[in-house]
Amino acid sequence: MGIVKTIVVLAVIYAIFLFSGYGVTVGSSENAAGLGLKCQYLTARGIVSSQYIHSDSGVIGVANCPVFKKVGEVVDNQ
Description:
By secondary structure, the chain is of the alpha+beta class. The chain is built from one helix and four strands. The protein has one helix spanning 2-20, and strands at residues 22-31, 36-43, 46-53, 68-70.
């Protein structure tokens, strides 16, 4: 019974990501001598990368990748 509930919960989370257009952070790396931050987001359609200006304080750019990000392609907008 626990496996069925897990599958249902995962299907609901997938549907939410598919129709809302949001992704969740799965990885990040600094680039351009530490001035850039490349964030990778898992969406319902695959992995999407975003580039941000990076600073440790977050005054200019971002200190860390945002946990959720809205991506451009959404299934119901086409």
